[in-house]
């Protein structure tokens, strides 16, 4: 039996910090509203002209290669989850491969919005378990600032930019990716989307004049679906794997709103000390939230820890997964 296990993490967040005070000068909002309704203090913004998602992804991948002592040519595949690709085509993964020297890897983007990393991990685990691949990099990377409307106070406080990547390898030991419950329902389009720029409504003067190239979200509806679907998915995965508040070491939730995260923790009857939380510093980095949380908490993880990951995003897409952590950090 081959298991697929994470053997290292690399991450990157841009230097520029956009805090709530600066946001309050851009739109009619304030630190108190943002902290109580969402739980974000600041977010990182990639504000250097000409740099896109692939820039952050390749920084994360390079750190991952260094930390795991991996030569670029050893990597068999790169799965890159993003909603903010550098270009419609070619894939952002192909650009990252070219810039990091992954000369033996095949690479592709995976689009599942904020659930992208979770879906990409499940794909990578399947590839590893096929026995045909030895080293796969899974990266979650998003430059959300590229599609956020900084005149819309309902969305602009929420999002930030970042990237993180993990190495996935085979093991015969009882560690790694154990179970996943992943879903997509197609109900989310009216509530969370970018209205123009795709094949239904290509860019035009009209779409630009009507601000249709920004992220559109009906927050309250998305909030309700996120709480219900993430909580149900976590409860299902916990239940069928015998996981309880006692033997779960960590929950790694998508970082969209601290109130959503608290609701998921309450459903699992888990204290917040067991929940990874970095939304206050990075905001919602979409596909990057889960690996950035693992990156931040890596030193606190121990071999054998039972971890539940959960996410929810546009589509709607959502799910939960169970993994047993595979290493102690030196
Ligand atoms: O990652 C993908 C998945 N996305 C999510 O999970 C996001 C889910 N949604 C949310 O997190 C929340 O719905 C938001 C954070 C987006 C909004 O919070 P809310 O508690 O649902 O606020 P609301 O939209 O119901 O607005 C409440 C009030 C409104 O005023 P009225 O109509 O009650 O007078 C808004 O106009 O808050 C007002 N408001 C603001 N006030 C100050 C909205 N945005 C702001 C703001 N500052 N930035």
**SS strand fraction:** 15-25%
* Spatial order of strands in the largest sheet: 1-7-6-4-5
Question: How many alpha or pi helices?
Answer: 10
In terms of structural class, how would the helical and strand content be classed? alpha/beta
What is the terminal-to-terminal distance?
A: 28 Å
The helix content is 25-40%
Are there runs of 5+ residues with pLDDT below 50, and where? none
Number of strands: 13
The profile of the biggest β sheet is:
5 strands, mixed
Bound molecules: oxa(dethia)-CoA
Look at the structure and give the mean pLDDT: 98
Radius of gyration: 19 Å
The H-and-E topology, N to C, reads as EEHHEHEHEHEEEEHEHEHHHEE
Silhouette? globular
Describe this entry's structure for a reader.
It is built from 10 helices and 13 strands. With 330 residues, it is an alpha/beta fold. It has a 5-stranded mixed beta sheet with strand order 1-7-6-4-5, with helices on both faces. A 4-stranded mixed beta sheet has the order 8-13-12-11, sandwiched between helices. It has a two-stranded antiparallel sheet with strand order 2-3. Helix 3 packs across helix 4 (92-100) and helix 7 runs parallel beside helix 8. It is globular. The mean pLDDT is 98. It binds oxa(dethia)-CoA.
Task: Provide a quick synopsis of the model.
This protein is α/β, with parallel strands linked by helices and 330 residues long. It has 10 helices and 13 strands. The longest helix is centred in the C-terminal third of the chain and has 22 residues, at 219-240.
Furnish the topology, listing elements before pairings.
Elements: E1 3-12, E2 16-19, H1 20-26, H2 31-37, E3 42-45, H3 53-68, E4 77-81, H4 92-100, E5 106-110, H5 116-129, E6 136-143, E7 161-171, E8 176-184, E9 192-194, H6 205-209, E10 215-217, H7 219-240, E11 250-253, H8 258-267, H9 279-282, H10 289-297, E12 306-313, E13 317-324
Parallel strand pairs: 4-5, 4-6, 11-12
Antiparallel strand pairs: 1-7, 2-3, 6-7, 8-13, 9-10, 12-13
Bound molecules: oxa(dethia)-CoA.
């Amino acid at each position: 039996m081959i298991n697929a296990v994470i053997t290292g993490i690399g991450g990157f967040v841009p230097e520029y910090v956009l805090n709530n005070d600066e946001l309050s000068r851009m739109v009619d909002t304030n630190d108190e509203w943002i902290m109580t309704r969402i739980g974000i203090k600041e977010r990182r913004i990639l504000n250097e002209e000409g740099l896109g998602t692939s820039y952050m992804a390749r920084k994360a991948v390079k750190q991952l290669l260094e930390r795991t002592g991996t030569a670029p040519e050893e990597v068999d595949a790169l799965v890159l989850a993003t909603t903010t690709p550098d270009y419609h085509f070619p894939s952002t993964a192909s650009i990252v491969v070219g810039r990091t020297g992954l000369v033996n890897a095949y690479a592709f983007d995976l689009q599942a919005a904020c659930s992208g990393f979770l879906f990409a991990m499940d794909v990578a685990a399947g590839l590893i378990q096929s026995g045909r691949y030895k080293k796969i990099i899974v990266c979650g990377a998003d430059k959300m600032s590229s599609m956020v409307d900084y005149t819309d106070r309902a969305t602009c406080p929420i999002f930030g930019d970042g990237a993180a990547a993990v190495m996935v390898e085979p093991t015969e030991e009882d560690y790694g990716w154990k179970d996943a419950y992943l879903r997509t329902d197609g109900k989310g389009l009216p509530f969370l989307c970018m209205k123009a720029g795709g094949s239904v409504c290509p860019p035009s003067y009209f779409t630009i004049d009507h601000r249709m190239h920004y992220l559109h979200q009906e927050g309250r509806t998305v909030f309700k679906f996120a709480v219900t679907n993430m909580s149900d998915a976590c409860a299902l995965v916990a239940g069928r794997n015998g996981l309880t508040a006692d033997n779960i070491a960590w929950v790694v939730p998508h970082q969209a709103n601290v109130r959503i995260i608290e609701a998921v923790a309450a459903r699992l009857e888990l204290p917040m000390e067991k929940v990874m939380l970095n939304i206050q510093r990075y905001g919602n980095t979409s596909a990057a939230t889960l690996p950035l949380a693992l990156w931040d908490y890596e030193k606190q993880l121990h071999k054998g820890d039972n971890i539940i990951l959960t996410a929810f995003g546009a589509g709607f897409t959502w799910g939960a997964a169970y993994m047993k952590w595979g290493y102690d950090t030196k």
